[in-house]
Amino acid sequence: MRVCIRAAFGWRAFAAFAAAMAAAGPGLAQGAGAYTADQAARGGKAYADNCALCHGADFAGGPGAPSLTGPEFLFGWTGKSVGALFTYLHDKMPPGQAGSLSDQDYADIAAAVLNANGVPAGGQALAGGTAAASASVIARP
Ligand code: HEC
User: Fold this and answer.
1) Across the chain, what does the average pLDDT equal?
2) Protein residue whose Cα sits closest to atom 26 of ligand 1
C-alpha cells in the first residue's frame, strides 16, 4: 500500500506525542524518550530519500528488503540498544553505500524507525555524535 509520506509522518508524530503523554507513569517502554518527535519527522524525510526505495515508504519492506516495523523487526531488535541500531544503519545501510549519510542523518533515521515501531518520543534528541553510545534499550511498546 502506498501511503503519502507527509501524512503518514504527521500522524505518526502525533501518535508518538500522544503515546509519550499517556506513558508518563509505570509501564513506560524502555528506549522511550531516546529521540524527539521533530527529529523523527526530519528522519522521515531522509528515510524517504535514502531508504524507502527498498524498505517502502511506509517501512513495510519491499522486494528483497525486510520490513522495518512490526513483529519480525521487533523480534530482531527487542533488547538491543538504540546505539546498536544506529551503528547497524551507519555501517550497513544503504547496501554498498554504507556511511554515505551524515551521523546526524543516521540518528534522525533511527528516530524515524523507532517512531514507526511505536517507541515513544521524548524531550531529548538523539545526537549524531553520541548516538552509537546510546544505551537506551529497544522494547516492545
Ligand atoms: C538497495 C536496497 C536498500 C536500501 C536503499 C536500504 N536498505 Fe536496508 N536492507 C536492505 C537489505 C537487502 C537488507 C537485509 C540485509 C541483510 O540481511 O544482511 C536490509 C536490512 C536493513 C535493516 C535490518 C532489518 C532487520 O530486520 O534487522 C535495517 C534496520 C535497514 N536495512 C535500514 C535501512 C535504512 C535506514 C536505510 C536508509 C539509510 C536502508 N536500510 C537502505 C536493502 C536496502
Assistant:
1) 84
2) 73
